[in-house]
Write a structure and sequence with these properties.
46% of the residues lie in helices and 13% in strands. By secondary structure, the protein is an alpha+beta fold. The strands form 2 sheets. Strands 2-3-5-6-1-8-10-9 form an 8-stranded mixed sheet, with helices on both faces. It has a two-stranded antiparallel sheet with strand order 4-7.
Length: 455
């Protein structure tokens, strides 16, 4: 029975560069298709076919020409094939990837790694098309005019039978001094014992294999092509999680800034309530993005094979995904707490305003009741059968000694009206102050003010 993970026999070296792209989204009407249609995934294909969160492709194919117009670094290599991929990662931004099959000395991969990473914005193909536009053109009706993002990861796979990364003496273990030049894209000497380079165990288990990586580069030698392709998808999924993890804290900082500015400004209560509702919706999106776009993409169950589980965990650690997710989660918790406090402040102001309105309407009813008392006394007075009330005299006549009574009635009505207006104005002014007072400023003299913010 043949070994399913036998080393590949590809005659050329292969470099795959995975890039994040700012503002890239899945085009409307695009239909992602399984990655197994473009990659040699072997025994890993069945896992990706069953996984709901597996990476799919938006487009792939050969790029125009077989040459690249380099910017500053000029690798002395012979390009044999140029291919591109556009990857659809669930709940995250799509990625693009460049694949270069090349011949020549493996040491020339060092300037190649540096050029395709640090100078990627300046690279052009033979048709004078920018590298990014050529990759995006693989998607029908794909976007153009975008820019590469911050995130990049490269996977270097030497040609089959190339054992230059193994030590010349027995036992033939990985020569990490040589591997470090590729991992760090530099020809200078290193103190490997102090490097952050990681060596995933399972990928180094076969006797002729070499696997090491840092944050930006993975070196895979002596592995099967299916292992290389599966590692390519794992790295893409983790890079997409890293892109998402970069986006969520940035949005959280913007939301916290809006809350802080709203607390320092005099804004209407309705605007505060709208701000809380909008930021609460944004918080829900960020929480979902953290769960599905970051944590779910780190899930080892997408490829439940021990050789990929070790690589996924090791690369996730190099990218700082676990630490970043934890820090981001705490940031979202603080945003949630701040929103809850702001919502509580808005609710308290609304309750105070509603109480003020109820008191004013109760005052209006009380004034009407008070005004009805003199009118009742007037009607009762003129309805009694006494010598002071003459039945042949009109009640509104002022010529028969009724002046004192109407004067008293007018004074009572005036006092009640003045009291009503005074209390109404004071209540309305208090409600206006409640609605216009900022969150950080005291509403009463002598109240404790918020501590000044750090510079």
């Amino acid at each position: 029975m043949p070994d399913v993970d036998a080393p590949h026999a590809r005659p050329s070296h292969r470099l795959r560069c995975i890039y994040g792209v700012r503002g890239l989204e899945v085009p409307k009407g695009a239909e992602p298709y399984p990655a197994a249609g473009a990659l040699e995934l072997g025994r890993f294909a069945r896992h990706l076919e069953r996984a709901d969160g597996a990476i799919r492709l938006l487009g792939h194919g050969d790029l125009p020409g077989t040459d690249i117009a380099w910017a500053q670094r000029t690798p002395r290599i012979t390009i044999q094939a140029l291919r591109g991929y556009v990857l659809a990662v669930p709940h995250a931004q799509p990625l693009v990837a460049l694949e270069i099959d090349f011949g020549g000395e493996l040491t020339e991969a060092v300037p190649l790694l540096a050029a395709t990473c640090f100078e990627r914005d300046e690279l052009r193909l033979a048709s004078d098309t920018t590298l990014l536009d050529a990759l995006l053109a693989l998607v029908p009706e794909g976007p153009s005019g975008l820019q590469f993002g911050h995130d990049v990861h490269q996977i270097l796979a030497p040609a089959g039978g190339d054992d230059t990364l193994l030590r010349n003496r027995a036992p033939r273990l990985p020569d990490l001094d040589r591997v470090a030049h590729f991992v760090y894209r530099d020809v200078d000497a290193f103190r490997v014992d102090y490097a952050a380079m990681k060596v995933p165990k399972e990928l180094n288990r076969p006797p002729d294999s070499v696997a090491a990586h840092a944050r930006g580069v993975t070196v895979l030698a002596g592995n099967a092509e299916a292992v290389e392709d599966a590692a390519f998808l794992v790295a893409a999924q983790l890079l997409a999680a890293n892109v998402k993890l970069r986006h969520i804290p940035a949005r959280s900082i913007v939301a916290l800034g809006e809350l802080e500015r709203a607390g320092e400004q005099h804004i209407k209560l309705a605007d505060r309530r709208d701000l809380v509702a909008r930021l609460s919706t944004e918080l829900s999106r960020l929480q979902i993005g953290l769960s599905l776009g970051v944590e779910e993409n780190m899930n080892p169950l997408h490829l439940p094979e021990v050789v990929m589980e070790h690589y996924r965990a090791s690369l996730a650690d190099s990218l700082g995904l676990l630490t970043g997710a934890d820090v981001t989660s705490r940031m979202l918790d603080r945003l949630s707490t701040a929103l809850a406090a702001t919502a509580g402040s808005v609710t308290a102001v609304e309750q105070s305003r509603d109480n003020g309105r109820r008191q004013r309407w109760a005052l209006a009813v009380g004034w009407l009741t008070t005004a009805a008392i003199p009118l009742t006394l007037t009607l009762a007075f003129f309805g009694v059968n006494t010598n002071e009330v003459k039945k042949d005299t009109r009640m509104l006549s002022l010529d028969h000694g009724y002046e004192w009574f109407y004067g008293l009635l007018a004074v009572l009505l005036l006092i009640s009206f003045v009291g009503f207006v005074t209390l109404w104005v004071l209540g309305a002014r208090q409600t206006h102050q409640l609605e216009q007072t900022s969150f950080n400023r005291p509403t009463k003299p002598g109240a404790v003010t918020a501590a000044p913010s750090d510079p």
